[in-house]
């Protein structure tokens, strides 16, 4: 395939990167389907995890098969940023991530992309090559995003926390009911005392 007179490589690593981009509508669109929220969370999380695995696998495969290319190096981070941005938009919509935090993450990605483009134009692109911190940041995003998308208890510990929270709420509600009953009983007693007092004066 050619673009602007230059050939776009079509190989397995590049196809995996394209597959990651294709999964983005799945992560977003599933939350508009008439299905239970638990199923939405599961499908979106599965799609995101598959995309995250291809993020690691396409780079490893490109190096293993000797199929690295400038286009692949360009497309891979773009796919990552689109995937994270799509997940953040949905998480903000669902109220699981604060909008300010999402803005900071997306704004940082846009700023870094613009900086890389500018550095490339002046012939100094290698000066801002991906660092270890950048890789750790991407890993953190790829791990935290599916956890926030899934949003359901992951095991007995999470389930116990939910039950404890429910018990606390029930206890607070019970205390509120007892307080209300006590207040009503006090009011009733005061009314009876006042009635007796009026009868005695009569």
Offer a quick outline of the entry.
The protein is an all-alpha fold.
Notes on the protein architecture:
The chain has 202 residues and is mostly helical. Helices cover 78% and strands 2% of the residues. The chain contains 7 helices and 2 strands; from the N terminus they run E-E-H-H-H-H-H-H-H. The protein has helices at residues 12-22, 24-29, 37-65, 70-93, 99-121, 132-150, 156-201; strands spanning 2-3, 6-7. It has a two-stranded antiparallel sheet. A hairpin with a 2-residue loop joins strand 1 (2-3) and strand 2. Helix 4 packs parallel to helix 6 (132-150). The longest helix has 46 residues, at 156-201. The model has no long low-confidence stretch (mean pLDDT 76).
Write the layout of secondary structure elements.
Elements: E1 2-3, E2 6-7, H1 12-22, H2 24-29, H3 37-65, H4 70-93, H5 99-121, H6 132-150, H7 156-201
Helix pairs in contact: 1-3, 1-4, 3-4, 3-6, 4-5, 4-6
Instruction: Enumerate the strands of the largest sheet in spatial order, edge to edge or round the barrel.
Output: 1-2
Low-confidence stretches: none
Backbone CA Rg: 29 Å
Distance between the termini: 106 Å
Share of residues in strands? under 5%
Helix content: over 70%
Compute the average pLDDT: 76
Note the main sheet. Answer: 2 strands, antiparallel
SSE-based structural type: mainly alpha
Number of strands: 2
In DSSP terms, counting alpha (H) and pi (I) runs of 4 or more, how many helices?
Answer: 7
Order of helices and strands: EEHHHHHHH
Oligomer: single chain
Shape: globular
